[in-house]
Input
Amino acid sequence: MSIMTEAEALQALKDKGSLYAPEDGYHFKGASGKHISGYCNIDPVLPFSNLLSRMTETIVENFKDSGAQTVIVPATGGIPLSQWGSYHLEKLNGGEVLGIWADKAKPSGFAIERDGFAKAIKDRKVLVLEDIINTMFSIKQVIDLVREHGGEVVGVGCLVANSGANAKDLGVDNFFKLATFSYDVWEESDCQLCADKVPIVTDIGHGNKFAAEHPDYPTVQVIKD
Output
């Protein structure tokens, strides 16, 4: 196994165009509704299976003694992590490890909807993985969902997390982030970027919702063909 360092992970994300740092001058909205000055878009990494496999392998190495029997992620960008995570845990420990995900629910939140997924949680030890943790909003919902379905959360791991993410606030004993990516977070009413009229990004994150609610506010798209 080739463990990936934090510096290598950050460089790989930068090389793929996944990281938008505060100094880039962008304005994002997270799933929690909070506004943020940085973002990690996992999409450009997803086509590179070997890279994603190595990243996920490095994360789950930190949970090899957790007894995890199931890996769960929030949909949709994190779905490949559930498969690579369970695959590498099986290689590490020899026993069967299941890989599932929580689907997005309407109008918000997550749900266990697919056939066999609830059974993969009940009375089992579950490792929760995520690609990017901004405000901990989505990952907390998945943690709660696992517990509601009778699973024991043995830890949380992610590719990248804002510096404020921590085990205590997540309500878990074990938390590992492959890389830290720091940026500011505001409630919408206190957002400095809004005060400065920095255009909000609408094609990454949830800025499109903000734009729909504030049609006169300037917008920008950052994804390049």
